[in-house]
Design goal:
There is one protein chain. The protein has one domain (34-180): Galactose-binding domain-like (Jelly Rolls). The chain is built from two helices and eleven strands. It has helices at 2-24, 144-147; strands at 36-47, 53-54, 61-63, 68-70, 75-81, 89-98, 106-113, 119-125, 135-140, 154-163, 168-180.
C-alpha cells in the first residue's frame, strides 16, 4: 500500500512537471547542426623549428631543439606546413628570430592552389635586423578572402630563407579567428 502511494506521487509530480514545461514553452528540441558563436573567437597555432625542412638537400644548416638556420655564409631556405581547419581566418604571423646583417633573410606565408600550382603570398617580409639579438615580430596577413583557409583547393606553407651563421628562426605562430564551434 505504501509503495502504491509513492508511485502515485511520482507519477503525479512527473505529469505536472511535463505539463508545466509544455505550457511554458521551456522544452525545445535542438535541430541545428551548426553552432555559431555570437562573437568571434581567437586562437593560435605554433610552428616549432622541428617543423621546418630544407628546400634543397645541398643546404648546410643547423637544426636543434630551439632553432633552425644556415650553418655557412651560403643561403638556405626552409619550409614548414601550416595546417589549420577550413574556414578559419588567418590574422597575423608572428616570428621569433635572430638576424645579423643579412639582406637575404625573408619570410613568406604562401597559399598554394592545387589546380594550377599558383602561389599566393599572404605575407612576404624582410624582417628588421636585430644586430644578433633574438626578438619577436608580428605581421598582418593580407586579404580577407585569401586569409580564409580553404583546404579543398589550397595548402599553406611558411618559407624562411637566410644566410650566415648568426641568423635563425626559433618559432612562428599564426593568430586565427573563427565563429563556428567546429571551426
Amino acid at each position: 500500500m505504501r509503495t502504491d502511494l509513492w508511485r502515485n506521487v511520482a507519477v503525479a509530480t512527473s505529469s505536472m512537471l511535463l505539463g508545466a514545461l509544455l505550457l511554458s514553452g521551456g522544452a525545445h528540441a535542438i535541430t541545428d547542426t551548426v553552432f555559431r558563436y555570437s562573437t568571434v573567437k581567437t586562437s593560435y597555432i605554433s610552428i616549432p623549428p622541428a617543423a621546418f625542412v630544407p628546400l634543397s638537400d645541398t643546404y648546410q644548416y643547423d637544426k636543434n631543439t630551439g632553432i633552425v638556420g644556415s650553418s655557412t655564409s651560403s643561403k638556405a631556405c626552409f619550409s614548414a606546413p601550416v595546417i589549420l581547419p577550413t574556414g578559419v581566418v588567418m590574422e597575423t604571423l608572428g616570428i621569433w628570430y635572430q638576424k645579423f646583417n643579412d639582406p637575404t633573410f625573408n619570410v613568406q606565408l604562401l597559399s598554394n592552389a592545387f589546380n594550377n600550382s599558383a602561389n599566393e603570398s599572404l605575407v612576404a617580409v624582410n624582417p628588421a635586423d636585430t644586430a644578433g639579438v633574438p626578438r619577436a615580430a608580428s605581421f598582418n596577413i593580407s586579404g580577407a578572402a585569401a586569409s580564409t583557409v580553404d583546404n579543398r583547393d589550397n595548402n599553406y606553407q611558411l618559407i624562411v630563407c637566410m644566410s650566415g651563421t648568426l641568423n635563425w628562426i626559433a618559432a612562428a605562430r599564426i593568430k586565427f579567428s573563427y565563429r563556428s564551434a567546429g571551426y
